Amino acid sequence: MEGPCWRIAPVGDLPTFFRALPLLVPPDALLCLAAGAWDRGMRLFLDRHRVPPPSGLRRPRTFRGGVDLPATSEVLAELAGLSERRAEPEVAGDIAVSHLGGQVLEWFDVPDDPFAVSRSVPVDRIATFCRQVRVTFAMP
User: Fold this and answer.
1) Which of 48, 56, 67, 76 is the 20 to 30 Å CA partner of 42?
2) DSSP sequence for 86-120
3) 31 membership: H or E segment, kind and range
4) What are the beta bridge partners of residue 68?
């Protein structure tokens, strides 16, 4: 991620991550799921909610084959439910969130590695999210 960012410890549980994500990102943000070994049920969900990627957004190469979804509470709750019945690689290997033409969150190697969140996200939102999912954050 370009520019200064927060480093958040890995959230080892994807359903918990997706349920708490609205605390962290604006409701008009876009969620990109990439590098998933998607079964028929996941593909149906992705096809039903898929939106075009934002024009002009520069993303790392790994997200070019990803699927963009609206990061609404409803979509994230449905995704959390699907995640409860699947191993992480069946949901996503990498996750990104974009808003207003910029990258807000990048998480590679889900769920094992820490992830980055843009400093444009206020620290109180970061702290609330981290308390909810029981992880720590730091400014590198």
Assistant:
1) 56
2) S-GGGT-SEEEEEETTEEEEEE-STTTS-EEEETT
3) strand 30-34
4) 32, 51
Contact by Cβ (8 Å): 15, 62: no
What is the rounded average pLDDT of the residues 100-116? Answer: 93
Sheet of 102-107, strand order:
67-70, 30-34, 94-99, 102-107, 115-118, 5-8, 137-138
Q: In the chain, what are the domain boundaries? A: 5-138
pTM over 0.85? The answer is: yes
Alpha-carbon distance values, 20 to 48, 65, 106, 130, 140 (Å): 22, 25, 16, 9, 23
pLDDT confidence of residue 34: 97
Chain mean position to CA 37: 16
What is the token pair recorded at 45? Answer: 């969900």
